[in-house]
Fold this sequence. Notes:
Blueprint: H1 3-18, H2 20-29, E1 37-40, E2 42-45, H3 46-61, H4 63-75, H5 86-102, H6 107-131, H7 136-142, H8 159-165, H9 169-195, H10 202-205, H11 220-246, H12 254-278, H13 281-298, H14 300-319, H15 321-331, H16 336-352, H17 366-370, E3 377-379, H18 388-394, H19 396-401, E4 403-405, H20 415-448, H21 455-474, H22 483-503
Antiparallel strand pairs: 1-2, 3-4
Helix pairs in contact: 1-2, 1-3, 2-3, 2-9, 3-6, 5-6, 5-20, 6-22, 9-11, 9-12, 11-12, 11-13, 11-21, 13-14, 13-21, 14-15, 20-21, 20-22, 21-22
Amino acid sequence: xxxxxxxxxxxxxxxxxxxxxxxxxxxxxxxxxxxxxxxxxxxxxxxxxxxxxxxxxxxxxxxxxxxxxxxxxxxxxxxxxxxxxxxxxxxxxxxxxxxxxxxxxxxxxxxxxxxxxxxxxxxxxxxxxxxxxxxxxxxxxxxxxxxxxxxxxxxxxxxxxxxxxxxxxxxxxxxxxxxxxxxxxxxxxxxxxxxxxxxxxxxxxxxxxxxxxxxxxxxxxxxxxxxxxxxxxxxxxxxxxxxxxxxxxxxxxxxxxxxxxxxxxxxxxxxxxxxxxxxxxxxxxxxxxxxxxxxxxxxxxxxxxxxxxxxxxxxxxxxxxxxxxxxxxxxxxxxxxxxxxxxxxxxxxxxxxxxxxxxxxxxxxxxxxxxxxxxxxxxxxxxxxxxxxxxxxxxxxxxxxxxxxxxxxxxxxxxxxxxxxxxxxxxxxxxxxxxxxxxxxxxxxxxxxxxxxxxxxxxxxxxxxxxxxxxxxxxxxxxxxxxxxxxxxxxxxxxxxxxxxxxxxxx
Length: 507
């Protein structure tokens, strides 16, 4: 453990004690810090250490309130607010821990459980309590002392602070460090694009086949990280514009406001460029799907224009044979990546069908469980060549050039199969329920509570679009089982919870 690491941890502890909100914002900016690993009895990452520090700091600061609220909960006394995903979180912890048992209670399984389930849920609890602030109207209608969600909070509940926040500041303070993090990751990726430096894989580093990786180990990680953040930034950007331009409320520091808008806009542009330079087709499709959803939620006029564009674009693709051919090739997964995925999914289904339909393989158990069903490689078929099948059978040279060796990946590269294999059928069903409930809360706010073209509407629409991008990309990738992605997923849940608790009509 280096001297600099110890100094940073000491600084982070001090910052958490003095300003827990600032330490959380630093944590959001440093989500990729899971790449810094060390051993302290058991393996840890820097991200995990920061999550544990902020949770323990919050818990010790609010221990009395935690115990009071728990006592009220078990005594049947009404608690003003509760976590929207409370029961889902409890069930997820239980089911995921049972998956550790399915895997044989190995160190690897326990490490995945704490990094991908236990610690992200701790982060959710702290974020909702620290950044979730009730509005003045909520306090007045309650007619009683406010009790933050179940475990208590540390937010400043003064009238001045509440009036300043207006129920929106908490979420924006989560998004800003994420925006700066995405900007930093994207800038490094763009630097790699034009220099070829710091790309470990020679094929990706070569100019003709260059794919950027930024600070991560592989190109798709760039898209997986920034795709959802793009929509959070977009929601914040439009929220600021609505507040300061639509209402003609210009701040005294107008130049600083313009600078903030410029930084947010750059973060979006550079993040999109990073995805393009990483050549992540899944991320491109995810961002495209999220963008369509965001435009459909923007307003009636934009919705009609978007639908018209979708219809005319679809007609154009169907009418123009080259575009139709390429679209069908990707949709039917007949391209190179698609054929690799289909082979992997076939092996995964064979593994599940061999007595693991209910339990899955357990946490970290996929590679070992799927090994008996794994094929060493596949012949990648060229569907543009009508004579491809005959060549594969009779032409040895053709077979050699179209043979693709396959490794056993950590996960099946499908969001639903990933959860099915890791935490079983029940765990996959619960994960689907969590996503469905996330969308339900968002659409409930948009349809029944929030007026059109308000700052809150943009933020809720951004969250819905971000989750859409994750799900669409997740059809062909692994958008959760990575330290930063698991934390980011539950940050989305926390932001939706905050907006829902602050803006729903009845508490």
